[in-house]
Amino acid sequence: MDKSLQSEGKSFNVQQMIESNKKKTSIGEKIERIIPTLLFLCAAVSVVTTVGILFTFLRESIGFFSDVSIIDFYTGSQWSPWSGEFGVAPLIGGTLLITLIATIVAVPLGLMSAIFLSEYASDKARRVIKPVLEVLAGIPTVVYGYFALTFVTPMFQFFLPDLGIFNALSGGFVVGIMILPMVASLSEDAMNSVPNALREAAYGLGSTKLEVVVKVVLPAAFSGIVASIVLAISRAIGETMIVTIAAGATPNLTLNPTESIQTMTAFIVQAATGDTSFGSTIYYSLYAVGMTLFVFTLVMNLIAQYISRKFREEY
Amino acid sequence: MLGQKERHIKKRMEGRVIINRLMMVLFGVATAIGLIFLVLLFYRVLTQGIGYLNWDYLSNFPAPYPEEAGIYAGLIGSIMLMVIVAIFSVMVGVGSAIYLEEYAPKNRMTEFIRINIQNLAGVPSIVFGLLGLTFFVYLFSFGYTLIAGGLTMALLILPVIIVAAQEAVRSVPAEMKEASYGMGATKWQTISRVILPAAVPGILTGTIIALSRAIGETAPLIIVGAAAAIYTLPESLLAKYTVMPIQIYNWTSRPAEEWQFVAGAGIIVLLVVLLLMNSIAVWIRNKYQHRL
Q: What does this protein do (chain A) (predicted)?
């Protein structure tokens, strides 16, 4: 009796408490309902980015292909945009030459490093060497470009006196060094996930370590290894600063690595830094070249994903 | 007495063992080549750049003469850019990760978002530059400004941050979540008061590593117009700016040899900043690794 009287005196009763609590929960409920939508919008940003990339390329490339016919663009073999020649072949050729050199450097070295780390090195050595090798992957590409121009080119010039300052060889070589840790690290992961029982079975049959590697570990880790190589190639195709700094700015359809060339990425940088006015054909050509580059890397990435999904060995 | 066959087998076995040993040396040498180039690179940068690295270099703006040129504008510009990138990419990235890990229904839309993030991570950085040029520079008419560069870089590292944050959120033990639900907490209360605090170290580590990738990126910023010659610090989001990699690129591409030394000094500063960021990331990871 006393209690309820006191409460009434303060105009404070249970019903009001319940009411106010109801209001509180309704705010809580609102938050509970709004939050998933907000978070979904965050997740949608990445989708919007992709749509944005596609929109950018389609819109600006249509602008370009109304000036230059798409057939001339993909079949022409002369790229000199400042005099109106838009045949993209030399740029694609330059990109592929760089990629080829980089692959020749990175794949054997990367695979052999991966085999050494996964099969031969002691656990302790691997735990030291692998992160140190991965430091190579964290070095900014502009630093690699500097290294290629001021160190690797002079080094090659010692053996090849005729080599020019800008050449595909040192650009491609340094791109290879850059993607090496990617091949090594991802292949090593793939080899490491091959179960030991398989190795021991082969040892039990009297194999040497090398035979175990070649006949058991490599085939078992094959999909992971191929995926790592394809991903590394995709990185090499999209690499910009090393080739811009060291490989030159001469669109040149050649297989000769000692010549100066220009890749798709290097052209994009050149055109963006030069005085290219908005809306000019050269401005639009940035996007036509960029779209071609994008398609190349996208196809490589899809291949890598397909390989690692389709041929994954489950142990 | 050994028969013909046994002798043959013994000989072959010796050969197999020798080849095994030779190949082991070859694999070791291949591993060493990568490491040697790493050492060569550091050695080259240090010997070229150390002579130009002093207090004046750290506090000077770009200049037409190598002796007077400095990295100040680049250093401050890089830090300001990273703050913008961090604010945007962490908000969106952590939001995406929580959505994908805690809320997303298992349907095609979710699978599409997941594959999309995976593919975005493989898009060359220069393509993000073109995206930024079309949207931020021209369509939103930010021009060649700090905010245009920051948003472009934020989109570039967003996939890395999402993946890192997803892993951090996923590694929070289910018991902690269930304990929270058991106390009557709602889903958002559980996420904001239990899962997120526990995931913070992982998110921080991933963010710092992603930012250390962004701070060395050059190509996209060239496309969205970071300038080389800047003689004031950016005063607003809509100001012109420069960053360290742009300065280094600019100096590297000049023919006179002195500029190579200036670029070398810039690279030392950039690498020291990278080293600091990575050390902090490793420190956070080690400190909180076994807490859960």
A: Part of the binding-protein-dependent transport system for phosphate; probably responsible for the translocation of the substrate across the membrane.
